[in-house]
Design goal:
about 280 residues; alpha+beta; 7-stranded mixed beta sheet; 5-stranded mixed beta sheet
Amino acid sequence: MIDDTETIDEFLARHSADVEEALRKAAAAEIMPRFRQLAAHEVDQKSGPHDLVTDADRLAEQHLTEALGALLPGSVVVGEEAVHANPASYEAIRGDAPVWIVDPVDGTRQFVRGEDGFSTLVALARGGVLHASWIYAPARDQLATAVRGQGAFLDGERLFAGPPEPGRDLEVATSHPDYTTDEQKRALLGLWTDGIAPRACGSAGLEYLAIARGRLDATAFSWEAAWDHAAGLLLVEEAGGAHLTITGEPFRVTGGNTLPFTTARDAATARRIMGLLAGGV
């Protein structure tokens, strides 16, 4: 386990490539053999028809839990499917041990439909601070990585989000209405105005990657689940972007955020989107 003699930065310097290998192996073993090959008995609903889980989700998370835990003894894994089975396990995000935050298949609906817009998300955090992240889109063979203070990269090339081009509508990916409260729906209505082009979001991880690449201007999300956001938030930060909650504070992966929140290509865009969301409340 990381202790006073080894920092997380030192661990990452030695093992980042091993984390990448773990993602690729999990995808090769458990996800891609089921892509466009799912049988009916391999797909279940969790909370409703828009909240799906497949054998690929469960088995890829098991694979990553074993591999990441072995890389960093004493660390804990907070994965979407394990938390669904045991909600109390989510509390580890707020603990002192290093924590791997894992979404084995982000964009399960897209995966079930046979579309390539899904990804595997992993972030390494400690004490609520994000230190590193990996977003792997296996059907597209794309890997985005970030280490705090060292930049964001896609397949080895540095990412810079940059400000949006002046004079055009801002494209904003928003939460699905089925996952918003009445108050959040009112806030999101603030985006239906001149100069903004809202649309429904796909895989959260890939939306964050699009922001880091300067291909999407912002998101407006209304849920807190850390596995959906942790990897992408650090990637966007390291690409020069910003994130704000409706109270004007950055999003915290440990929870307790006032929602909705935005992530954007730059701080000015984040403030503009948040102003519209606040005006809709």
